[in-house]
Amino acid sequence: MNSTHHATRSFLRFNIEQHILQKRWLILVPVVLFAAYIMSDEMLVVAKSQGLSPNIWNPLFNIFGNGNAVFWMFNFLFLFLISDLSVETGFGALLLFRLRSRSKWWLAKVLTLAVAALAFAGMLLVLVGGVSSFAFPWSTSWSELARGYAGRIGPNPAVLVLSPSGAFLRLITLLILGWFSLGLVTTLVSSLTNNGIVGFLAGAVINIAGLFAYKGYIPRYLQNYSIATHFLLDFHRFGTKASMYPPFGASIIYWAVWIALFTTIGFLLCRKKDFLSEKDRS
Question: Is 22 inside any structural domain?
Fold first, then answer.
């Protein structure tokens, strides 16, 4: 029993080292810093022209709550970083034999993906918060710009009934759940095909479908079933039942069902995965 637990922990540690503690994650630094600089600078121009003072919450909500940034930049970056998570190397296949369990193999992949989603969010927060803190003061309340320019830059007016920290916690929770869920599909397809590019494309198709929904290219009655609604905090109602948007709890349920479904499918399909036919047997 102890040897089995040790093998499981070793395999999980191997996956984290192999797929997260890698230099390619450093691509986030120049890309995100550049995007944060451009979007923050744009916000400062608006604030000055309107004569409204901003604070740190303005760039945080404008960047992390921006549908274009989420679907065009963050989602594709995350898919790129995790697309080969389930593509097994020869050494990884040997570790599988030590595990003596295909289910534990899939569980380790799912846990690694969860760590990747948390690490991705953490890195983005450090980068965006770091560069924004040089130009925007910290505060515990909404700024004049957020209240006077709500819905155009920053969160929609309905979100302002919450505290900035409470709203941002909800925003980040939706993003992490969304990245984890999107990553599950990518990881599952990569595992079935043993090809990270195919997995990336599968995730990209779902992401683009969400982008179309965000842009309003699908009927309104279908949008609540799209990932776009459940990725973005602005597409939720707070404090009113008259809104056409779902409550925050509905998105938690949406992502929980998605995660449970694709995790279960992964457990079922990994039993049929032929590790002996992998091309890479280094």
Answer: yes
CB atoms within 10 A of CB 121: 19
Mean pLDDT of 64-68: 92
> What is the count of structural domains for the chain?
1
Mean pLDDT, rounded, for 1-30: 79
Q: How far apart are CA 33 and CA 45, in angstroms?
A: 18
What span, in angstroms and rounded, lies between the C-alpha atoms of 282 and 279? 9
Which pTM does this prediction carry?
0.90
Q: Which residues contact 78 (CB under 8 A, 6 or more apart)?
A: 116, 117, 120, 179, 182, 183
Tokens of 176: 């992490």
Non-local (6+) Cβ contacts of 166 within 8 A are: none
Per-chain mean pLDDT for the chain: 85
On whether residue 280 sits in a domain, the answer given is no
**In degrees to the nearest 10, what's the CA dihedral of 110, 115, 121, 122?**
180
- Is residue 247 helix, strand or coil? strand
Residue 50 counted as domain residue: yes
Q: Are 99 and 3 in contact (CB under 8 A)?
A: no
Is residue 282 in a domain?
no
Q: Among all chains, which residue has been given the structure tokens 């990209």? A: 204
